[in-house]
Specification:
15 strands; alpha+beta; D-Maltodextrin-Binding Protein, domain 2; eight-stranded mixed sheet; five-stranded mixed sheet; Fructose-1,6-Bisphosphatase, Chain A, domain 1
Length: 258
């Protein structure tokens, strides 16, 4: 199929995501929501579901040539597909921690080409378009410059599907190299922060497509080196992801090996 007009779509999508984010932020601040558990340490609120439904309606109506896959309601992935996490960082959201976001990625023939990650708490919108660039609130962003491990910081994600020993081992390796790490509870924001140079990379062993679709588009557009996430089984069980600035990609890849 012909490549879509990505910049035109980006402007419309960013507006849709920002509007949905303001509604979610109001619910967050008022503490007006219900919570249930999908599994151990895996929570969902009714704000996740209503936000996803709103995004589904807005995006599929505005772009009838697309399909939609959301974390909560599922869907399909066609040649041109929105892959959405309505609230990434739900555990933070339900506990009153202001570090969560809305994540909307567009896949073209199975690869991310556009991403919007909106953090309503800081009023920050990270965007990226393949082959064009990445932005924070409209200003260009790039990954950090080359630096030694002893001056670097790696963002980390973790969930109970991950190998505990591997995760703990990585922290030990980082500390032994005097490398700092951040665990923030939102994979999408972890990728966005790496793209903006706030950290030098992000790694998580087991993460789902809706968590990374937007962030990988943004990080790659910002000049990051991105691991090959999109294997066939990523849709059913997730996959490992590593993004890093060019100067540290090789070092981080060595440290994160099983």
């Amino acid at each position: 199929m012909q490549a879509p007009d990505l910049m035109h779509r980006l402007r419309l999508v960013a507006a849709v995501v920002n509007a949905a984010g303001q509604t979610a932020l109001s619910r967050f601040r008022s503490r007006d929501f219900t919570v249930s558990a999908k599994g151990r340490q895996d929570l969902v609120s009714d704000v996740d579901r209503t936000t996803e439904a709103s995004l589904r309606d807005s995006l599929t109506n505005a772009f009838p040539d697309t399909t939609f896959l959301g974390e909560e309601g599922g869907g399909t992935v066609g040649d041109l597909a929105w892959v959405v996490d309505p609230i990434d960082g739900t555990s933070n959201f339900v506990r009153g921690v202001p570090h969560w976001c809305l994540s909307v990625g567009l896949l073209h023939l199975g690869r991310p080409v556009l991403g919007v990650i909106h953090d309503p708490n800081l009023n920050e919108t990270f965007t990226g378009v393949a082959g064009t660039g990445a932005w924070l609130n409209g200003d260009p962003i790039r990954v950090g410059s080359a630096r030694p491990l002893s001056e670097a910081t790696l963002g980390l994600g973790f969930n109970l599907k991950s190998d505990r020993a591997r995760h703990a081992g990585l922290i030990g390796k980082l500390i032994s190299h005097d490398c700092l790490y951040r665990f923030m509870g939102s994979g999408a924001l972890g990728l966005a922060w790496a793209a903006a140079g706030r950290t030098d990379g992000f790694w998580e062993e087991r993460i789902m497509p809706w968590d990374v679709a937007a962030g990988l588009a943004i990080a790659e557009a910002a000049g990051a080196q991105v691991s090959d996430y999109w294997s066939s089984d990523c849709w059913s069980r997730g996959n490992s992801v590593l993004v890093a600035s060019q100067g540290l990609a090789s070092a981080f890849a060595d440290l994160t090996k099983a």
